[in-house]
Amino acid sequence: MALTNKVTIVTGAARGIGLAIARRFVEDGAKVVMSDVNDEAGEAAEADLKALGEVTYVHCDVSERLDVRNLIAAAIDTYGDVDVLINNAGIVSPGDILTIDEAEFDRVLNINLKGSFLCGQAVARHMVDRVKNGGPAGAIVNMSSVNAVFGLHTQLPYTVSKGGVNQLTKAMAVALAPHGIRVNAIGPGSIMTDMLASVNDDPAARARILSRTPMARIGEPREIASIAAFLADEGASYVTGQTVYADGGRLPLNYTVDVPEE
Q: What positions does the domain Ketoreductase occupy (predicted)?
């Protein structure tokens, strides 16, 4: 398979979309380095995925340059190289322009946007050096959101950070294209992660989500993992600087749809 033996770093991999991506890549034969700040969940995920293939867990706060440096070093020490980076680590924090605290705004942007920059820069420098020495190029996939496009006023720092991720993706892609390194992003819509699990017990909340989702269902983490696998392998060899939205048709919709009663 195209990802066989590809050394892949997945940040924010202890749960949710990150864990689904790590699982998909391990299943496809990649050597996966998972990182997170939730060590208990990360180590449990590592133990689970080891039954499927080569995987290791490394603690990393992506907003801290030293942690990022140690993450890249661990990947190289363990598997000898870095072929793919999945910048998935991210958080949310509610608040609009009138209520959000400055420290909380900084915290979200430091993880969601600065973290993608720090990891992306470190991996890109390694990949460029490898290309200059006659080695193959690699691929970087950032995690954006439909809220990079929508003005979600109740999640101001998250919305701003994901808009920044889109622009970071474009600028990285243009800068790294001469080296053959591809950079793309994924923009999920409503995906059934821990953050959305509560809607299953709240019919009104579920109806609100489905009313803006033409495909009339909430997405699954494995569906985002499939896009990450495509963008990382040679099947996407002429794709760079793009954000692929997986949102059940939400972005093209400029109204709400009727939701059948359950």
A: 6-189
CATH number of the domain that 206 lies in?
3.40.50.720
Q: Is residue 32 in a domain?
A: yes
Kindly report the pTM of this predicted structure: 0.95
For 220, counting Cβ atoms within 10 Å of its Cβ (0-12 exposed, 13-18 middle, 19+ buried), the class is: middle
- Backbone phi, then psi, for 124, in 5-degree steps? -60, -40
Active-site residue, from 57, 79, 158, 245:
158
- The whole-angstrom distance between residue 67's C-alpha and the CA centroid of its chain comes to 18
254 falls within a domain: no
238 is catalytic: no
| pLDDT tier, 1 (very low <50, low <70, confident <90, very high otherwise) | low
Domain of residue 63: give its range: 7-246
Burial of 190 from C-beta contacts in 10 A (0-12 / 13-18 / 19+): buried
| 119, part of any domain | yes
* Angstrom distance (rounded) from CA 71 to CA 223: 26
Q: Are 219 and 248 in contact (CB under 8 A)?
A: yes
Q: What is the pLDDT of residue 194?
A: 83
Residue 12 has what DSSP assignment? S
* Sheet with 182-188, edge to edge strand ranges: 55-59, 31-36, 7-11, 84-87, 139-143, 182-188, 243-246
Lookup: tokens for 2 = 């195209």
Question: In this structure, is residue 152 part of a structural domain?
Answer: yes
* Number of structural domains the chain divides into: 1
**pLDDT at position 261, please?**
75
